[in-house]
Each structure stands twice: as structure tokens, then as C-alpha cells.
Amino acid sequence: MDDGSRAMGVAVGGSGREVRLVEVPEGLPEERHLTVAEVPVPVPGPGEVLVRNRHFMVFAALRTLMGGTVRDAPLPPLLAGDTLFGPAIGEVVAASDAEGPQPGEQVLHMLGWREYAVVAREACVRLDGTLPDPVAHLNQGTAAYGALTRLAAIRPGDTVLVTGAAGAVGSLAGQIARLLGAGRVIGTTGSARKGERLVAEVGYDAAVLRGGDGPGSFAERLAGAAPDGVDVLLDNVGGEQLAAAVGAARQGARFALVGALSGQLAAGGGGGAPVAVDSYRLILKGVSLRGYAGTDHPEMGQEWTARFGEWLRSGAIRFPHTRIAGIDEAPRAFTDMVRGRHFGTVIVDV
């Protein structure tokens, strides 16, 4: 470290590891498309801190960013040679000055997928004990909570449908919907085992299997699970599941779109998720259909974290997540998540 840095237990000239994109995949990412590289520990400059990461989140949107083909994406593209990024929890080990986070403090930031990260101090969020477990800050409940309170406000007794219910967003969304007053909560997923876990572990009333993993068409299965129709949709998927939800909509239904996994995780997809829906039914049923963007609700992060902390401490909600040990396992963690092999949020313990 230079003489102006405030350091704690960091060796000058040391090295760390980070996960890089070797090449942009043409289909679904495979382990060979990622590599773990050894690099020198960076030195913080003015207004920066050096963080030793302890945990980081693996999320599907990274696949969309690979190659930079999606227009208007809120995050920068990932090209060959780039280091992956995403939400991370770490400990500050060096600071360039006495302002901002200091050595020993835990922070949340966006430069995961590496052991050491130099982060602008204003890009760090100090962890203040609002959540009982620091790892819970890597949840993806903000979008679900925001969509269900701002776009598709739940009314007592509503039937709520959550697509992609076994993922990071969906495994919290069903619980949030129930806590906000929903009368019946239905989730969609790709396997019978995950469907069982949705009902047994996170409070869904029913699970509807997508694709060819059940009798009849998806729309028919949905109609069986929601014979009186759907009042609220929290959509993480798009595609045929969104089209079927339109068919099941009740009068005045509110649809909030928060993800597009049907495009992001398609073998030949580049993030777009085109779908044909019955627009006449939208008109007849007076359905509102809106996309949720976190940038439109800057207050939501703090509000959700406070609410989440209260619910966790009272035992009203669970944080479903899968822990993967070691940064060397991160490439496999990502490819397994893309193929739907995990339940809840996927977290790598560095």
C-alpha cells in the first residue's frame, strides 16, 4: 500500500483471484467460457477502498450482458477478458483516507467475482445490522417487494401468480405476497422437486410445472391451479407463461414484469423475450401490464431492507439460498444456475 493508505493485514505485492469471461458463448454458457485468473492485489486511489470479498451473488442477468447485444441494459456489457461483477459482501482492508468506510467494516458493493476489489467509497453500503445475517444482503427481494407494492399493489384475498418461483426473486416473492395479504399464491417452476419445495418450504399453495413436465398444456395446468383466475402476476419469465397468465387474468388484474428468463436462459437467446399475447383480452379484462425498473424507485432498497429485517427476525420470512464454497467453484455455480440446478439465491463463499 502507498503511504497514504490506511491498511489492515494486506501484504504489498500479494495476489488474489478473479473470474473472467474467456469468450462470449454462442449458446448457454459452459464452464470453459469462464476462467479463474490470479492477479495482483489492487491499491486504492483517492476516494477508494480495498475490500476483501467474503461472499458474492450469482445472477442470471450476467448471461444477458455477455457480448453486449441487449439494448438499454442497466449494467455494462461483458466482453472477452472482462472480469464478472455483481453484488458482494466484503470487509474493508485498506482505505485511501479517513473518510468513508474504514478497515474492519463490512460493506455491500457491486464488484463481486474477485477476492479483492477496489471500490469507490460512495459505491459501498456499510452494513449496519439491519439484517441478522450479513449474507442476507445478497437477496433479490427488492424488485419483488417494489413491484408488489408500487405496480401491482396486493389487495386482501388476491390470487397471486409468480413465474420462475424457485429462483432468487421468486422464492421470496411468494412469501412477500402472502405477507402483503394475498389469499392464494401460485408459483411456476421447471421440476416437480422444486415444486414440492415451493409448497413445503416457502409457503406457496400450488406449483405449476412449465414445459413438457406435466399433463396438458401450461395454460391448462395454470387454469387447474387457479380455477377462479389470477388477480396479480409477478413475472420473472415472459414467454408462454406470460401469455397463459393473460388468459387466466381476472377483471382488473395487475401484471408486474420484473424479469425475462425465457430469453435470458434460452439456448439461442440474447436476452430478448418476444411473446404473443391476446391484447383483446387485456382490453376486455382491464389488465394493467407494467415493467418494474429499480431506478424508478430509488427509495425501495432501504424500505425493503428494513421490512426484510423485521420479517427475518420475527420468523415470518425465510431467505432460501444455496451456498457454494470457494471462488474456484464459481464458474460451475454460474452454469448450474443457468441450467436451473439450484433453488433460491446462489451465493459463492470466497
TrEMBL record:
GO MF entry, a single one: oxidoreductase activity
SMART domains: PKS_ER (SM00829)
Domain Enoyl reductase (ER): 27-348
Alphabetical list of InterPro entries matching this protein: ADH-like_C (IPR013149), ADH_N_2 (IPR041694), ER (IPR020843), GroES-like_sf (IPR011032), NAD(P)-bd_dom_sf (IPR036291), Zn-ADH-like_protein (IPR051397)
Designated name of the protein: Enoyl reductase (ER) domain-containing protein
